[in-house]
User: Fold Glycosyl transferase family 28 C-terminal domain-containing protein from Pyxidicoccus parkwayensis.
Amino acid sequence: MTASRWLIYALGGGMGHLTRSSALARAAARRGHAVTLLTNSPFASGLPLEVLLGPGVKVLRLDAELDKHAVREVVALCLHDLRPDLFVVDTFPRGLGGELASLLPEVRARKVLVHRDLNPKYVARFDLASAVDAFDLVLVPGEDAPFAGHARAVRTAPWLLLEAEELLSRKEARARLGVAAGDSRPVVAVMGCGTASEVDEAGTLAASLRSLLGDAARVRWLVPPGPSAAPAGCVPVWPALAVLPGVDVLVGAGGYNTVHEARATGTPFVALARPRLYDRQALRLEAEELAPSAEALVERAALLARSRPARGPGPYASGTRDAVALIERACLSA
Assistant:
């Protein structure tokens, strides 16, 4: 396959869009493609993205406060200067603020939409059906979505940032989480991601679990590395996926990456469904994973830790390689 130039639009708050798009970018670069990844995640400045993604991926970090007009100018400039062969848009076919609607008709590159679940009110209000028609390929990674039945839609397994062989061993993961060799107590990891307030709330949940479990378990509050000093008591780690083999109970929210990473690694998991404008986290969670309140979340996580449930069945499966192959066949070979 001839190497091509990719521009990936991964705008959106939190870590979800950035992590999913990083998985695709990494897989594409390993196939020899030159990838530019555009993100405005407030976490991006603190993450060693270039180290993990490799020299084939250039990361452009935008200020999270830019309005849609400024974002449109940046995207238009990237399209003009980079002249990509492929333009990949994560989740929002019109752009996060609708800024792509006027740009897409002028884009000569082949266009790919990464399509996951969206709030039906948003879909109807902005006529996303027409917007989706502008794309040459619609990839549906691992879960149902409004336009999964589109004529150009193809499903894959969920996209994961790491390959199975890149995960740490249980022993290595527990050491990375600060658990001493010979300490056999279960590890409860509380995932701190999403909004800044949700990162802080994860710290409160971790403190509640430490109080409830005492010496019966090792509780860790995981946060993405940031540009400033990490909060006291947390463990900066990214990607968190790498350490899940050492985690006995994962506590988090119903975001795309956390849910699919927990299931792929068979990690016992309990979560809150966080409110989002576009995402419906409650639909992503199974009944046994969903806690109705923070109090119930802590109680259920403590119960899981005490019972030491077995890890779920494999195999570890990621759809990122398949996604790149589909893009190459459907778009870059046309």
The chain has a mean pLDDT of 94. The CA atoms of residues 23 and 277 lie 24 Å apart.
